[in-house]
Amino acid sequence: FLWEWLKGRGLKNLPTMHVVGIGWFTESMKEGRPVAVETRHLIQVRYSLSTICLSSLLQDALEVLVEYHELTEIEGPRVAYSRAASVLKSLPWTIESMGGTEALPCVGEKTRTLIQEILQYGRSFEVEKILADERYQTLKLFTSVFGVGPKTADKWYRRGLRSFSQILADPDVQLNRMQQNGFLHYTDLSRGLSAAEARAVEAVVGETVRTVAPNARVVLTGGFRRGKEFGHDVDFIVTTAEPGRENSLLPLIMGRLEEQGLLLFQAHHPSTLALKKIPCRRFEAMDYYSKCFLILKLEGSRVQGGGQAVPAGRGWRAVRVDLVAPPIERFAFTQLGWTGSKQFERDLRRFARVERNMLLDNHALFDKNQFLAAVTEKDIFAHLGLEYMEPWQRNA
Ligand code: DCT
Ligand code: MG
């Protein structure tokens, strides 16, 4: 009952620990096992529920605000709300009143108003207004297609388009190859990937790289390196010790994937790396390494517990995979950058700039007119005077 009640409220950010507790409680009741319920337990259950709901409501509300500003490309509030969400997520205590919130770093006036509203009414009127907004709903729907960014989504919205069928039926809309494939594989790609599927992709990519370039090194990066259970794609770094050879790796890998009938789509961006361009002050700027954005065919038989992972009867599903191929001496910077999370990268660069007067990006770390060398991520943390953080600690 409690679980259904929580789900019924549409809460997404429920801490597992509490849910396990509730599971045990209701299971015991259902099975007729005696559960000694004392008043203090009931008080505890009520207390946990109200704090779970508050922090969950707050996280959900902040997620909507971040997404809304991302979709409408309003950078300032997007960054401010993301920072506030990270800080509130990492608090060792739960917010139960406004007291003490003024002292929290990165929690500004607007977030404090949001907290106040949620504490007082259990909901945010601003967030409810956004959720009901037609433009927000349409931009969210359109940008869920691979290859469609906020600009294209807004252009279609302003043309009066509101649904996929309207886009596909409009003779004036020219879809590029990426968007055509985004629509073609929409159902599979919008499902995201589990960690088991990511491991299967890792095995396929690993075998492919070993076949075409036995001396190359391939490592998992992105959200799955941070230990995430779900992700929208699987990211890899491939490199080789032979100077200049990294640029030929991706075409070789894509060729082999094609031969195996596993390549459904590829967009390859050759390297534009030139020393004068690094390091880059703008976070949004893509790095200059050779990279490719792929859609691969993942066979269900390759996934542990495969049956439920792919659509029944088809035997495979489409998955998004990104590969980046930096020169070996840039490997550590690429790994630190591509491991994410995006918010962590943003904050780390800001720390380097503001606290250390250094410049950090996916290519290099720059200090007083010189580039600092790094073989591993640990070297970069050490240059920044920071304790090493494991990938799972970078989920902010
Ligand atoms: N990244 C970067 N420069 C950018 C964009 C992203 O260096 N302009 C980094 C940050 C995270 C990493 O690349 C992988 O990006 P995503 O795959 O988008 O994120 P993720 O953390 O892997 O999460 P998911 O794939 O589940 O959305
Ligand atoms: Mg990823």
Structure, explained:
Its EC number is 2.7.7.7. Its main location: nucleus. It is found in: Nucleus. Belongs to the DNA polymerase type-X family. The structure is a single chain. With 396 residues, this protein is α+β, with helices and mostly antiparallel strands. The chain is 49% helix and 13% strand. The chain has helices spanning 2-8, 16-30, 39-71, 75-89, 109-121, 125-132, 134-143, 150-158, 164-169, 177-184, 186-190, 195-212, 222-225, 246-259, 331-339, 342-356, 377-383; strands at 193-194, 217-221, 230-231, 234-239, 263-269, 290-299, 316-325, 359-360, 365-367, 370-372. It has a 5-stranded mixed sheet with strand order 2-4-7-6-5, with helices on both faces. Strands 8-9-10 form a 3-stranded antiparallel sheet. Strands 1-3 form a two-stranded antiparallel sheet. The chain is globular and about 60 Å long. The chain starts with a helix and ends in a 13-residue tail after the last helix. Magnesium ion (MG) is lined by residues 222-223, 231, 233, 235.
